[in-house]
Every structure is written in C-alpha cells, then in structure tokens.
Amino acid sequence: KCESYWPQLCPPPLVAMAQEMLTGDDSLMCKLEENFDVNTPEEIKEKINISKEKWEVNEKKIKKLTSQLSTPLSEISFVLVAYSFFTDGKVTEDEQRAAIKNTIVLGRLWEYNQNEIQDAYAIASEVCGNCEMEEIQAIFIDILAKLYNQEGFNVEQQEMVVSSLELLMDADGEQHKAEIYWIAKIKEFWKLK
Fold it and tell me: Is this model's pTM higher than 0.85 or not?
C-alpha cells in the first residue's frame, strides 16, 4: 500500500496527491485534511469571497476618501500627513508642524491663497483620520502614481516633495527604517537620484 511505505520518503501532501492521481483514491488526502486541519474547497471559496467583499468595501471607501482630496495641494498634504503616520504609527507634534510648514511652502509656491492652504491641510488630515493603516498606504501610493503622471508635475516639484518628506523624517529627531524605505521607493518610482 502507498501509505505504508512512501510517506516515510516523501512529504505526505505529495504522496496524497500521487495516490489520488494514480488510483483515484483520495483517502490519504482526506486523512491529511483531518490531521492538519486543511480547509476544504468550500471553506476556501468562502474565505476568498469574504476577502473579495472586504476588498470591494475598502476599494469603495478608498475611492470616496480620495475624491475628497480635490486639489494637488490637498493630495500633497495627505502624502505628508500619511507619511508621518504610517511609517512609524504616530504623528509627533514636530512632524505635524513640519507637515503644516511644508504644505504652506508648497501652497505659496503653487499660488494658493491662505484659506485654500488651510483647507487643503484640514481635508488631508481629516481623510487620513478616517482611514485604516492599509487604506492610508493605498491612498498614499495612489496619489504618488497620480502625481507622477500629472502633466506639469516636473522633476523639480518631485524633488521638492521628496525634500519635504526628508524634513518630516528628521522632524522628530529619529529616522525609522520605514521612513527611509519609503523615501527610497518614491525616488525609485519617480526615477530621481
């Protein structure tokens, strides 16, 4: 019999699959499923459907939240706030001040008035506050991709955003691995040196 000799030489799942393919008998596979608490195909389908539903809900929520970021400045503001938050899980007072300062600098450079600058930061903070960590990261990445493909968002502006993120990274006096990682990823994605 297959189960008395081969399991000692081969991994049990491989033996079970071979037995089923060669003989049509799936008793060893059933035994493995019981012993190792393996999900049945029905259980797997159920988990996939739950994950798919969860993703669809998150995707709808992300689109709704992203639509609130209606100006390039509010998007950049979100990137600044989100970067401070999701790289180390908290936004210090120093990081918040640096995000506000960078939003003001970029807003003036792009000729936004004071009210528009305040609104952009307020909306970005609100959207960030209404998100789970994964959603913040998804919106962050989506905005960076959108900016990269936006006409008029040139290398100089890309470098200014990266510089703003570097200032944020240094604002609390600590450089976390995730902060360094994301700056490197953005530079790579935007093809900056």
Answer: no
149-152 long-range contacts (CB < 8 A, ≥24 apart) are 150/72
Average pLDDT, the chain: 79
Cβ atoms 120, 111 nearer than 8 A: no
Among all chains, which residue has been given the structure tokens 């008395």? Answer: 4
As a whole number of angstroms, the distance between CA 64 and CA 160 comes to 28
Please check whether residue 88 is in contact with residue 176, taking contact to mean a CB–CB distance below 8 angstroms. yes
What is the per-residue pLDDT for 172?
A: 78
| Contact present, 115 and 122 (Cβ < 8 Å) | no
Burial class (CB in 10 A: 0-12, 13-18, 19+), 153: middle
CB 126 within 8 A of CB 118: no
Please give the C-alpha separations between residue 22 and each of 2, 19, 59, 158, in angstroms, as whole numbers: 11, 5, 44, 60
- Contact call for residues 38 and 16 (beta carbons, < 8 A): no
